[in-house]
Amino acid sequence: MNPELALPINGGFLRPLVEADVHQGYVDGLNDPLVNRFLDGVKASVQTAGSVCDFVAADRLSPSSVLWGVWTDESPRHVGTVRLHGIERRHGTAHIGICLFDQRCWGRGLGSAAIAAATRWAIDALGLRWIEAGAYEANLASQRAFLSAGYVEVFDIPGKYLLEGVPTTVKVYAARA
Ligand SMILES: CC(C)(COP(=O)(O)OP(=O)(O)OC[C@H]1O[C@@H](n2cnc3c(N)ncnc32)[C@H](O)[C@@H]1OP(=O)(O)O)[C@@H](O)C(=O)NCCC(=O)NCCS
């Protein structure tokens, strides 16, 4: 989906990404092991400008995804993404993921602000009632960002998923309308 809207957040804004937004910092950030440590799909293969453009295009055309770029007031290029996917109208549910690929932006409240804005839009504009995120238990920054954005922990999935080859617990968080 490519809704015509920008969502303001403290210190920046979100806007749905188009292929022309793809820049080298975005591609390099996705390939950075510190950034992609907990991003299964991203690190499964080396990202290139082409693969990232294909990803952006697929989400723009998909009726069940919205991929926003996260812009700060200081940066002309986006510094991260927040993505609603698996939007399921029948149940009113969706999944959400976040990645600030520019590490200079970590720890300033940007992640929680982006999650909160996208979640609010999903509830208010799409009428969804349950937005869900999974985080590896070692990813404390992600868990705290979702908690700060108003999410609550709903269940754990112990041992199903591998992190660096080792079975681990994924903690599932949800925001409810
Ligand atoms: C996870 C991520 C989005 C967090 O964004 P952020 O802008 O750095 O987070 P915020 O500044 O909004 O901080 C949110 C909370 O996490 C805490 N936090 C931030 N970094 C932390 C860290 N490394 N360890 C523990 N807590 C941390 C903050 O103190 C804050 O807590 P509070 O709200 O209780 O005060 C960002 O680190 C990121 O994109 N990481 C790489 C990709 C990733 O792991 N995505 C999530 C996959 S589930």
Automatic annotation (TrEMBL):
Entry-linked InterPro entries: Acyl_CoA_acyltransferase, GNAT_dom, Ribosomal_N-acetyltransferase
**Does the record carry Nucleotide-binding as a key word?**
no
Organism phylogeny: Bacteria, Pseudomonadati, Pseudomonadota, Betaproteobacteria, Rhodocyclales
Gene Ontology cellular-component annotations:
cytoplasm
* Keyword field: Transferase
Q: What is the name of the protein in this document? A: GNAT family N-acetyltransferase
Pfam families linked: Acetyltransf_3
| Domain N-acetyltransferase stretches | 12-173
Organism of origin is Denitromonas halophila
Q: Which GO terms describe its molecular function?
A: protein N-terminal-serine acetyltransferase activity; protein-N-terminal-alanine acetyltransferase activity
